[in-house]
């Protein structure tokens, strides 16, 4: 896993493992509508079940939000892009996973860091946590979203099997021809 840190701010991470699938994650601020393709159905979100959203939040807490040589991202939540000090004395990160049409809201798993208060990190498993889909959260410093994208795996092209076979047969032919020439001498 590789952190994306610019100027001491944590903007995201690459290759975050969520239940065996790797994702690139970025921490973004804005409206649910703008960030999640309209925010009108569960298919707009990176995870479509509460269980997967909790797994993603837990993975971030266990692998990304740690104190280390790049920064104290566990102890100081304000080092995460989009989060500022507020009256709650903690920063929230949200992972939406369901759309609630009757409420015009997206259900989210919210997690935050209690480091400043001296407690442990926590993932809220309250299924009632929700954000109005059209609300502009860019001015609310405790609403930041974690947006997940499956990690793009770069494949290294290998020579075609037929070419390898032909090259091997040609090499074998040269070895045999050389052997016959050596025997004739």
Structural overview:
- It is a single chain.
- The chain is elongated and about 90 Å long.
- The protein has helices at residues 32-35, 50-63, 161-184, and strands at 2-6, 9-18, 21-28, 67-68, 71-72, 92-100, 105-112, 122-123, 130-132, 144-150.
- By secondary structure, it is an alpha+beta fold.
- The N and C termini lie far apart (62 Å).
- The model is unreliable at 114-121 (pLDDT under 50).
- It is built from three helices and ten strands, in the order E-E-E-H-H-E-E-E-E-E-E-E-H.
- A hairpin with a 2-residue loop joins strand 4 and strand 5 (71-72).
- Strands 1, 2, 3, 6, 7, 8, 9 and 10 form an eight-stranded mixed beta sheet that branches. It has a two-stranded antiparallel ribbon with strand order 4-5.
- The longest helix is centred in the last third of the chain and has 24 residues, at 161-184.
Count of strand segments: 10
Number of helices: 3
- How much helicity do the residues have? 10-25%
Q: Which structural class fits the helix and strand makeup? A: alpha+beta
Biggest beta sheet summary = 8 strands, mixed
**Helix and strand element order:** EEEHHEEEEEEEH
Assess the beta-strand content as a share of residues. 25-35%
Keywords:
single chain; 185 residues; eight-stranded mixed beta sheet; two-stranded antiparallel ribbon; 3 helices; 10 strands; 23% helix
